[in-house]
Amino acid sequence: QVQLQESGPGLVKPSETLSLTCTVSGGSVSSGSYYWSWIRQPPGKGLEWIGYIYYSGSTNYNPSLKSRVTISVDTSKNQFSLKLSSVTAADTAVYYCAREDLWGQGTLVTVSS
Amino acid sequence: DVVMTQSPLSLPVTLGQPASISCRSSQSLVYSDGNTYLNWFQQRPGQSPRRLIYKVSNRDSGVPDRFSGSGSGTDFILKISRVEAEDVGVYYCLQGTHWPWTFGQGTKVEIK
Hints:
heterodimer, A: mainly beta, globular, B: seven-stranded mixed beta sheet, 48% strand
């Protein structure tokens, strides 16, 4: 049974870089035709797809965030990661890692000094 | 971006009664491969979203058959044939045809 688990700091200072990792268990990030994604949900608001890395290694980012986002994969650790630079309070959200059909439990990241 | 518009945004329902949620897209969701990438998600209170339906009408494994999806082009519907207490939560449609993939605003289902 495949499971995804997000990890990373829960508090990030404005202008710094938010870094999160998603660990995949019960399956491999390099097998199957999956889009390994990051999605976020600001408190009390809707969902925004940040971007994905395809199993082949290609990436696609939401144009609204493209200049600040990097998604990468570490097949040796069976993980994929999100980096979001120059964060502001507007980036405060629950961040989810996901495959198309399966999501992690999410992790709240607060941007505050 | 493709705008996904759900209605209603709030849906009080009686246990055992049917419920229906509409989702309309600002562009056709038919992809070049002929598939329509419209999914439905359920987010129970305090939980992460769970996919219920993919490509308009296909139920994910373990999803009760009281959930069904239909539609085509730009108009889609999620139906719950008989609402149960565990169905309380927010339901989102998601289009995966045009990048960036976009969600509807969400429909909150609650028990009357």
